[in-house]
Amino acid sequence: MAIVYLEYNFKIIPLQPATDILIAELGDAGFESFVETEEGLLAYILKEEWKEGLLDDLFALQHPDFKISWTSTEIEQQNWNAEWEKNFHPIQVGGRCMVRAPFHDPIDVEFDIVIEPKMSFGTGHHETTHMMLQHILDHDFEGKSVLDMGCGTGVLAILANKKGATPVEAIDIDEWCVINTQENIERNACLTIHVEQGTSDLLTGRKYDVILANINRNILLDDIPMYANCLNKGGALFLSGFYLQDLDAISAKCAAHGLEFEKKLEKNNWISAKYVN
Ligand SMILES: C[S@@+](CC[C@H](N)C(=O)[O-])C[C@H]1O[C@@H](n2cnc3c(N)ncnc32)[C@H](O)[C@@H]1O
């Protein structure tokens, strides 16, 4: 049976910060994938996840300073894939890493990563992923054990593994992301990465040198105590998926569990921060 999605086409004035706020709220409301366009945003939700009044309480749509209009159409998965392929251009990070799709030509670069995201988040186009890739480029991963929590497409685990990290574990709550990460691992010949479906509940008793988590403010706040427990002495925790205004709360939670703020990257009000113990 064909999987049917609803595509919402939002026209947004001005684009920022309204687009980022809308993406965060739509993500919480069950939308799975987003493509930023010149005029706004395409957002995709499984038809079976759609509910009457889904958009009624969204702050971004009620904010007097944002002018947001939209249309929606039903599309089958096949068409949806064609849509992102049209919009997917290779992403370059720090002059050393490219993230591209299988239909792009290979690129001569230190870390050439091939990702077919399908319905998963994590191509490097989003600020939160881009900054995590930048952090990974800046950090020494040789021989380090790594957890990629909320792995999406697996792109962070793949770059860490290409930089010498081993063993690497990737976890996502979403079955589709687990399947997609496995496919991307094979595509990039990073066959030692181990993928599992689940949450931080899986982490009891595990230890890592580096933990990468690009999720969202509330899940990070809930899971920081577990991450702190799982981090080896001298380890590093990289967090992403929250806004500048959430940094103090995230840093305070980390500090309460023995993790000291070391540095942050910032892009369009999104923050990606490094903590050490
Ligand atoms: C913002 S995406 C990040 C994907 C990828 N790591 C990247 O950096 O692009 C967040 C991912 O976390 C997953 N996720 C959400 N809640 C989670 C939880 N409680 N535990 C594990 N994964 C979760 C989502 O399914 C999604 O794939």
Automatic annotation (TrEMBL):
InterPro entries: Ribosomal_L11_MeTrfase_PrmA, Ribosomal_PrmA_MeTrfase, SAM-dependent_MTases_sf. The keyword Transcription does not apply. NCBIfam families: PRK00517.2-2. GO terms for biological process: methylation. It is found in: Cytoplasm. Belongs to the methyltransferase superfamily. PrmA family. The keyword Ribonucleoprotein applies. Methylates ribosomal protein L11. SUPFAM superfamilies: S-adenosyl-L-methionine-dependent methyltransferases. It catalyses: L-lysyl-[protein] + 3 S-adenosyl-L-methionine = N(6),N(6),N(6)-trimethyl-L-lysyl-[protein] + 3 S-adenosyl-L-homocysteine + 3 H(+). GO terms for molecular function: protein methyltransferase activity. HAMAP family: Methyltr_PrmA (MF_00735). S-adenosyl-L-methionine binds at residues 129, 150, 172, 214. This is Ribosomal protein L11 methyltransferase. Gene3D superfamilies: Vaccinia Virus protein VP39 (3.40.50.150). It is an enzyme of class 2 (transferase). Its EC number is 2.1.1.-. Keywords: Cytoplasm, Methyltransferase, Ribonucleoprotein, Ribosomal protein, S-adenosyl-L-methionine, Transferase. One of its GO terms (cellular component) is cytoplasm. It comes from Flagellimonas pelagia.
